[in-house]
Design goal:
Layout (H helix, E strand, L loop, with lengths): L6 H8 L3 H8 L7 H23 L3 E9 L2 H14 L7 E9 L4 H14 L3 E5 L4 H12 L4 E4 L10 E3 L3 H16 L5 E5 L6 H17 L5 E4 L6 H14 L3 E6 L4 H10 L6 E5 L3 H8 L5 E4 L2 H15 L15 E3 L12
Parallel strand pairs: 1-2, 1-3, 3-4, 4-5, 6-7, 6-8, 8-9, 9-10
Antiparallel strand pairs: 10-11
Length: 344
Amino acid sequence: MGHPFPIREIARQAGLSEATVDRVLNGRGGVRESTAREVHRAIADLDRQRTQVRLVGRTFMVDIVMQSPERFSTAVRAALEAELPSLHPAVVRSRFHFRETGPAGELVAVLDRIGRRGSQGVLLKAPDVPEVTAAVGRLVAAGVPVVTLVTDLPASARIGHVGSDNRAAGATAAYLMGQWLGDRPGNVLTSLSSGSFRNEEEREMGFRSVMRARCPGRALVEIAEGQGLDATQYDLVRAALERDPGIRAVYSIGGGNIATLRAFEDAGRECAVFVAHDLDHDNTRLLREHRLSAVLHHDLRHDLREACHLVMRAHGALPPAGPTLPSAVQVVTPYNMPPPTVAG
């Protein structure tokens, strides 16, 4: 009959008797054409609502595991909690495992502990190193789907990735940098929190490629391993400024921007152009104060919603869908800032 619904359910949906529905479905006579249309419309309605029915009463316990500065993990928590009502009738409960830095072994221990305890899914932001990839494989083998968030682990067994197109974001930063610096001399400081995060590596590659094509005479000075933390970032930037008196612009790939600006100020140096990523609470304040030129932002709420949907699909609670598309990258200035995320 081309549908999975019992006659009783179709009759209730259409407001008709079971006998009438039976005659329509089995092609017996004595039924008006308009009544037959009502039966087929009821089947279509039930088919559309089938996903909601599958989700009613379902609770998904999801673990969010992140190595990230506090300002970004706070933004992720707020984005997820703001999205939870939109996931109804399913109920998503979350456990958060956040750390700012540390050896990969500690992160692996967290993932293995989740595997032993059990979970409906893990949303993971982690460095792309072999031991983390192996831990993801163990989770998936234990029946726990893993979705990478913001930065990918493409060699792992993760079921999907959500985030922006990082190469395009880096290329956009280079375009803005070239436009705003114009013909003024000066080198550009590129700052990564760590070379182990694939998203930062891809941003840097996109930035370097476009800068090489559009501004071939401008030197790029790279610093890394500040972990996006102000305490370590300040020393790295001060050392770079002392080594290179030509630095006058910053592309901040990994954060620590308050410390970067303080290093410029303490060195008595001007930062003519400063392009950063993510509207966390630090960057929001700096942008409002016009201390950043622009922030490249993507919708974290969209990412968290898509990640939860991937977990639900892995459990058969949502129908299959096409590949997850990258989040759109927004160029945010002090004059087009989106409203803050509010949980609830």
